[in-house]
Amino acid sequence: MFQATGIHGPVLGPLGSLILDVVLLGIAFWMLLSNTKKTIPDVILFASIVAGVSVLRILMVPLPNVQPVTVAALLVGAQLGAKRGIAFAILVTMITNFIIGNGIWTLYQALGWSLVAVIGANYKLVLDGKINHKRILFTSIIAAFMFDFIVSLSVIDGSITFSQFMLYLANGIPYDLMHAIGNLAFAAWLTTWFVNLLQHQPTLEEIELSVVEGHVIES
């Protein structure tokens, strides 16, 4: 299943990659299908956002640890809810790593960005259409360090000692700072536009309200 060990952990062989992709894709579609009241424009817009952020991440690979996906996952979770935020995180991770490079770290990246989306969905970053910019900026910094720590766990394979892992984390601090600075730039630059774009899709609360109202009318 493992072919070699890369800088972010074991590199998966064809079978390992296939198993990982099937599991992640299954989770993503399960999250998407668990939402109701989806329309074709909603699906197209969501797919466009996934594709756009994926392209942006691939284009920004030369910049060390500048991850546009983190802020995007935060805002998708805040505006569309945790389930679609998780689906977004998984799909972007899979699409981009298919080009950038696939390994066990794909699982940790998908987990990290999924947790970022869940935080966005529960931290009231966007409430009644109003954006809490200060909270988004603060959360984007925390999300950078949290995500990087989760992905760092991918190097633990039984052969690395605790002191070696601590050294690995220490060497990664400059890259963590780059991630945080990049998040601040993305949050300050794109938040208003991105939230307005996502407002074309119904939030989970709006979906639940429409279902409840539909049952009331029918009864």
Notes on the structure:
The chain is mainly alpha-helical. It has one domain. 74% of the residues lie in helices and 6% in strands. The protein is built from nine helices and four strands. It has helices at 14-33, 40-59, 68-80, 82-100, 105-122, 133-152, 162-171, 173-198, 204-218; strands at residues 2-6, 9-12, 126-127, 130-131. The strands form two sheets. A two-stranded antiparallel sheet has the order 1-2. It is globular, with a radius of gyration of 18 Å. The N and C termini lie far apart (55 Å). Mean pLDDT is 85; it is low at 1-6 and 210-219.
Question: In short, what is this structure?
Answer:
The chain has helices spanning 14-33, 40-59, 68-80, 82-100, 105-122, 133-152, 162-171, 173-198, 204-218, and strands spanning 2-6, 9-12, 126-127, 130-131.
